[in-house]
């Protein structure tokens, strides 16, 4: 397993799903982790799970669309751990499923504020901290919807394309300062988000799986394994890359 002994990480959206699995995986490999999430219950539960593994963790209640909240999770982490080595910039929402011309402007703005502005705010202030401690590694959560079109979720797809643009641009800007910025692009993954997308319908689940060459959803652990590798010292030359993790969905 990738060794992350003593490294300090932040995971946004760490109270559930992929975020929680990544946080636990980092902790199992020796890291200490800040969990930033809007859910106090989910965030504190993740902290308890991490501490049960023998690692240090703290929860910071965060709405990533609020600049002051983002500054707070960065400053709180620095106050406790003195540095930030790794950042999994993951928090996001899917919005609703409906055609673009029918999409409510207020909901579009909410998706943009959380998925795109939240990702930008996180990168901005974490990079500032990483520059002071000589570098670090960032993984942003995009989506297969950031690589291809995704009918019915136009703001989600637009923001995830935007996250990929931020990733590639920041990688070029900060590579010389020993900061790596990559993105993952998960396809359908067995999380609560997929339950919401399919409304829990077995028929809808089967339709989604039928379009995936692998014939199944990915698991949060499979995503977490990739993220941990990209955040580790085992990936020193990987920078500005976007990794689909979708069972071949976007390869077609």
UniProtKB/TrEMBL annotation:
This protein's name: Glucose 1-dehydrogenase
Keywords, ordered alphabetically: Oxidoreductase
Similarity remark: Belongs to the short-chain dehydrogenases/reductases (SDR) family.
The species this protein was found in: Salipaludibacillus agaradhaerens (Bacillus agaradhaerens)
Example GO BP: bile acid metabolic process
GO molecular function, one term: glucose 1-dehydrogenase [NAD(P)+] activity
Lineage top rank: taxon: Bacteria
Alphabetized Gene3D superfamilies for the sequence: NAD(P)-binding Rossmann-like Domain (3.40.50.720)
Pfam families: adh_short_C2
Record carries keyword Cytoplasm: no
Enzyme class, UniProt record, top EC level: oxidoreductase
Alphabetical list of PROSITE patterns matching this protein: ADH_SHORT (PS00061)
PANTHER family: DEHYDROGENASES, SHORT CHAIN (PTHR24321), ESTRADIOL 17-BETA-DEHYDROGENASE 8-RELATED (PTHR24321:SF8)
Entry EC number(s): 1.1.1.47
